[in-house]
Fold these 4 entries.
Entry 1:
Amino acid sequence: PMRPLVVKEGRGDTLWDVDGHRYTDFCMGWGSLILGHSPEPVAVVLREQIEQGTLFGVATPYERELAERILGHIPSMD
């Protein structure tokens, strides 16, 4: 019987399973991984944020920045 595919790591468009086999990931999170697995610029920012904290349960400056960007693309939301 075939064993199920169990992925251990992903980088760019490549996956490695727990047995060390390499695969090209054509699904890429069904579109959510447009930058690939573990893109370095994203990993750097994530590491920086993890050092500052990850879930505060209160508003952060980043939420306001995101809201302003979204509103900037929706003229009817003055």
Entry 2:
Amino acid sequence: EWGGRKDGTRKRVRAYVASYMLHHGPVPKGRLVRHKCDNRECINPDHLELGTQKDNMQDAARRGRVRNQYGEC
């Protein structure tokens, strides 16, 4: 189902999410599609995986994409 809602309306999804859904199936509630390759434009289904928002933030921190909002310690 392409981002369809229970009321029959449709929801837009990003290209990488559509790619994931085409090749792997729907994205369960509470999960999101993450890029293993760290390329936000990538739609290669082999580079996409499910995770949580916490997983996504940990990936961003490991890859140096998150600033410390509280300043240096």
Entry 3:
Amino acid sequence: QINDTIAEKAIKVYSDYALYFPNDTVTPDYLFKAGEISTATQQYPQALIFYQNITKKYPDFKYVKESLYLQGFLLDNFLNDDAAAKIIYEQVIAKYPDTNYASDAKAAISNFGKTDEQLIKEFKEKNEKK
């Protein structure tokens, strides 16, 4: 369990640092940590913004692929915006085709609009074939 007060302070420190020192080498790490904490505390719109900043401003960051994928994941699973999620997932597939993120993005797109029951049925059928 994350203490919300401590989480808020950490997010503020990380985001303030990024604001005041945008060119520092640790800044994208701090944005990523702020995104993780925001996600863990269910502040999904805020997390999305942190990950968007990473992909826009720090294209060489070691977690840029993950940051792009997580934007789609947040839009898909928590912000209920399948249309925007699909656009992000398609960017992941196009930019990073040979990664697990691309595979996960393809799977996510194929599951749009399916009920939990449909997904469970498909999962069971897939496992029975193995």
Entry 4:
Amino acid sequence: MVDAIRLKKSWGLVAAHGDQVPLFFYSYLFLHHPHTREMFPVSMANQRDKLVTALGQVVSRVDDLDSVV
């Protein structure tokens, strides 16, 4: 339970950075693993939104992961 609380609190801090979060993630991914770039659409705007939304859903339901799965 304590880890779930920490995760939610940490996600709140991360999410406060808005668009910088997915930009950092995908920049790091494509820089260090360039072969993965071809797996994503040319325009990443929609993909970035999907990533943050999905992560937010998992974190918000971390107490009930069966509902996430």
